[in-house]
Amino acid sequence: MADKLSAVKGMNDILPAESARWEWLEGTVREIMARYAYRNIRTPIVEHTALFVRGIGEVTDIVEKEMYSFEDKLNGEKLTLRPENTASVVRAVTEHSLLYDGGKRLWYTGPMFRHERPQRGRYRQFHQIGAEALGFAGPDVDAELILLAASLWKAIGLTDVRLELNSLGQPAERAAHRIELIAHFEQHADQLDEDGRRRLHSNPLRILDTKNPAMKAVVEAAPKLIDFLGAASLAHFNGLRAILDANGVEYTINPRLVRGLDYYNLTVFEFVTDRLGAQGTVCAGGRYDDLIAQMGGKPAPAVGWAMGVERVLELVKEQGAAVPAPVPDVYAVVPDAAAMPVVLRTLQQLRDAGLRVQMHAATADGLGSFKSQFKKADASGARYALVFGGDELARGEVTVKSLRDGPEAGGAQRTESLADVAAWAPKLQTLQSPT
């Protein structure tokens, strides 16, 4: 016997019972995105490596250590499995000149890939849902995206998430802050860990985002970027805050919030939770006004966010939020295989009428007993069983047996004509399937 193969570590199968939760979340996301007039975009999983080096930043952890990159054997191109999707969306918008007639509101969903140690809510293949608004410069669209995320949390029943805000200002403001930041950390170099010392002159802003508790004091004492912001940057930040305040959105200003990607400016934000341990960020984003030009497009402002699907579903499960389970409306009980032509014709008519139908099918041991079929019908969650017994078929009828009404399963039943399925099919939709 051949050795059993297994999935790559950190790249997980999503089996039907769990996939139902994903479908529920994705369906809710589609509905919320439509309410805010965001349109779906789909980009390739594989991109040129240069896209992420240029877009994310050469000295970021993602580019330095986490990307799955390889050389195409046919033509020698350097390619990468996408580690995030904002750079891909910007590349697509630029390549296809989507901003020629004005701004665009876009959203996406799909797998991303980073080579890191798998842990709860953090995998090598993970999935993101993101929203990007390109071509809009004002804090109103920053606020719109935050309100969109807040609407999603409400729709899926999440309560234990909080919003943190910061502003990274503009490049000249960050440059002035950078000089003071480096000077501060140089004076306390003995308190920096290996990552901190490595980033000191290449990307000192990222030191502020350290998760090392031993560096908390030196980071808290560091110069704050918000103190270096000019009038325009402060006006943008205060405009965002005014809109959030008017909508009753609670938030805290976190001066240490810098995000891990180089392309951000002005607004940055995260929705975080304490329920998932170290992996507490469930959604994050900000403004990236220079990225489109950096990708070779005509300069245009942009802002967006991405949420981790695995983390959001973990939080849904942790909070015990109700998730509807997809179940059939009816289950077909078939005592005799000879009835299958009539059974399948009837079931197709029911499906055409919009019902969700599950048919009992034969295994290697046959169809099984009438009793065992009813047990499976009940376990399926269906509200009704359709019984295609010999006596019923001889009369041109089928028995419709309730599995959910009355003090016990199977409390009521009736017969219906097989010649007039369209007339009685709507009766099976009068009640919602159980969740």
Q: Give a short account of the largest sheet.
A: 8 strands, mixed
Structural class assignment: alpha+beta
User: What is the CATH class name of the largest domain?
Assistant: Alpha Beta
Stated plainly, the CATH topology of the largest domain is called BirA Bifunctional Protein, domain 2
Ends: how far apart? Answer: 42 Å
Number of strands: 16
Report Rg: 28 Å
Strands of the biggest beta sheet: in what spatial order?
1-5-6-11-10-9-7-8
> Tally the helices: what do you get?
15
Give the second-level CATH assignment, the architecture of the largest domain: 2-Layer Sandwich
Poorly predicted regions are 430-435
Tally of distinct domains: 2
Would you tell me the overall average pLDDT? 89
Helix share bin: 25-40%
Globular, elongated, flat, extended or rod-shaped: what is the shape?
elongated
Percent of residues in beta strands = 15-25%
Per CATH, the superfamily of the largest domain is Bira Bifunctional Protein, Domain 2
